[in-house]
Write a structure and sequence with these properties.
The protein has about 200 residues and is mainly beta. Strand 6 and strand 7 form a beta hairpin. The strands form 3 sheets. It has an 8-stranded antiparallel beta sheet with strand order 1-14-3-10-11-12-6-7, with no helix packed on it. The longest helix has 9 residues. About 5% of the residues lie in helices and about 50% in strands. The two termini are about 35 Å apart.
Length: about 200
């Protein structure tokens, strides 16, 4: 039997999405850095943050300025069993394309953290603010069956007129360890300025 659509059928299909409950981002915590700070962390000490409430978290980072030149923004994960940020066993890949068409890549299969923004050449000149921001998605933290992973995309600069579109991804390689936090810091020097907001993604 062939069913031919009519105006009523089309109206019903058009109206369907309005009746479906969609996900949303729930703001959980915010850190605003206004002077030299070594790192910014989000852990399960805050309700809803990596405590099993959400399977995915999103960290929005904006107005980011490093104290040093040519640095990468690095992420580490916190071991839920002892509260320490792990310093080995990460695998990651980060790749950028600058406005001259040059690719900037960096990767590792056994690193002390996950390099995110900064590609292969690094961001910042150590003295001026530039347009630097990103979004980082964190998945499968506190999951006993899958290793935690992150991915995201952003933009960074290191000089007037320079811009780089940068995407990145990484994971912690030991599936026996559950993670309940993230820490952001630069590969060298402090975070001079930056706004960090973490959201829980409601399914």
């Amino acid at each position: 039997m062939i069913i031919k659509p009519n105006n009523n059928t089309i109206s019903a299909i058009t109206a369907l999405p309005a009746s479906i409950t969609t996900g949303s981002w729930i703001k959980l915590a915010e850190t605003n850095v206004t002077s030299a700070t070594a790192s910014v962390s989000f852990t399960d000490a805050t309700s809803g943050v990596f405590d099993g409430t959400y399977r995915t978290h999103a960290v929005l980072i904006r107005r980011l300025e490093p104290a040093n030149a040519n640095v990468q923004l690095t992420l580490r994960m916190r071991d839920a069993s002892d509260g320490s940020f792990k310093t080995s066993s990460y695998a990651y890949a980060t790749k950028g394309m600058d406005n001259a068409g040059t690719e900037r890549t960096d990767y590792s299969t056994s690193a002390g953290g996950i390099n995110t923004l900064g590609g292969g050449d690094g961001m910042g000149d150590g003295s001026n603010p530039y347009g630097t921001s990103c979004i980082v998605y964190c998945n499968d933290f506190l999951d006993s069956g899958n290793p935690p992973s992150i991915f995201g995309q952003g933009v960074y600069s290191k000089g007037s007129g320079y811009t780089n579109s940068n995407h990145f991804a990484g994971t912690y390689r030991d599936t026996s360890i559950q993670m309940d936090g993230v820490q952001f810091f630069f590969s060298a020097g402090n975070i001079e300025k930056g706004n960090f907001i973490i959201y829980g993604v409601k399914e």
